[in-house]
């Protein structure tokens, strides 16, 4: 009985969340990142690159330039990496590359990529060239896109030909038409769980196709234990962050994912509270030793 109640609650929340997304995404063209998004984007560079919280003056300056379009994500990244504060730390090549992965890919280095960059540095490649390699990558573009920011001037729009092995309309959200794909992820992390709030495993994966012409939305649940690429599909978010998970789910579904939504256990209670709670009728007595 308890499982039945939880199942009904889960699907109710899915329907509600999709409704909110439909209302939010209804305009035919979405604006760039909000001030709050852009602040989060810049603040993470302070933490990852400089190892401190942002000062208000510097934060406001970078945010203002991003919002008015005079700076791109790559401009901000270069500003931090080549700042006197960063270069003054005299990081080793190993630390330098690790910081680039965390700051610009939102993940820990993979062994092969980490080794390759270190070998290039040892062979005489400049740190600027290494940084350019990170900033011109699809992974960094995905990070910028998640904050509503242009990655760099003249950044390409990835279309069907960019991705081999599956088809894509090449649409960039609603700007290329009135059909959009997004994915809803339920992340298993939380501030009071081991590891804290991190890019956790996506135990809920719901692919949504929204057609504004027909006013219909199609939802497909992708089970967390689905085997893809030699592993469970829910692990891609934990190992590759948002950008890595988007790539994996695009390859799995064969469709371009324009947007994604992530929530975790910390976001579950506020979501319920936002809708003034969810009433559940318990039709039978339930003995649950875990809840006291």
From TrEMBL:
Keywords: Membrane, Transmembrane, Transmembrane helix. The chain crosses the membrane at residues 12-30. Residues 201-288 form the Cell envelope-related transcriptional attenuator domain. Coiled coil: none annotated. Residues 77-143 form the DUF4214 domain. The keyword Transmembrane helix applies. Pfam families: DUF4214, LytR_cpsA_psr. The keyword Acetylation does not apply. InterPro entries: DUF4214, LytR/CpsA/Psr_CW_biosynth, LytR_CpsA_psr, PBS_linker_sf. This is DUF4214 domain-containing protein. It comes from marine sediment metagenome.
């Amino acid at each position: 009985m308890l499982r039945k109640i939880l199942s009904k609650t889960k699907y109710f929340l899915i329907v509600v969340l999709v409704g909110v997304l439909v209302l939010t995404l209804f305009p035919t063209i979405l604006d760039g990142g909000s001030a709050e998004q852009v602040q989060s984007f810049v603040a993470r560079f302070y933490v990852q690159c400089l190892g401190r919280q942002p000062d208000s003056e510097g934060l406001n300056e970078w945010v203002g330039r991003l919002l008015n379009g005079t700076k791109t994500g790559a401009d901000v990244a270069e500003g931090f990496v080549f700042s006197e504060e960063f270069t003054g730390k005299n990081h080793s090549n190993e630390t330098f590359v690790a910081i680039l992965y965390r700051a610009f890919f939102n993940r820990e280095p993979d062994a092969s990529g980490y080794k390759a960059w270190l070998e290039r540095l040892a062979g005489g490649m400049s740190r600027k060239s290494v940084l350019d390699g990170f900033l011109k990558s699809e992974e960094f573009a995905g990070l910028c896109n998640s904050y509503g920011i242009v990655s760099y001037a003249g950044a390409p729009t990835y279309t069907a030909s960019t991705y081999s092995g599956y088809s894509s309309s090449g649409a960039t959200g609603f700007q290329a038409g009135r059909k959009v794909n997004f994915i809803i992820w339920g992340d298993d992390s939380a501030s009071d769980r081991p590891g804290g709030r991190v890019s956790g495993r996506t135990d809920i994966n719901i692919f949504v196709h929204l057609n504004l012409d027909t006013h219909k939305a199609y939802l497909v649940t992708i089970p967390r234990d689905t085997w893809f690429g030699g592993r469970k599909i829910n692990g891609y978010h934990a190992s590759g962050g948002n950008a890595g998970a988007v790539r994996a789910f695009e390859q799995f579904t064969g469709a371009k994912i324009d947007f994604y939504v992530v929530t975790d256990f910390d976001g579950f209670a506020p979501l319920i509270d936002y809708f003034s709670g969810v009433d559940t009728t318990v039709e039978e007595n339930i003995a649950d030793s875990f809840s006291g």
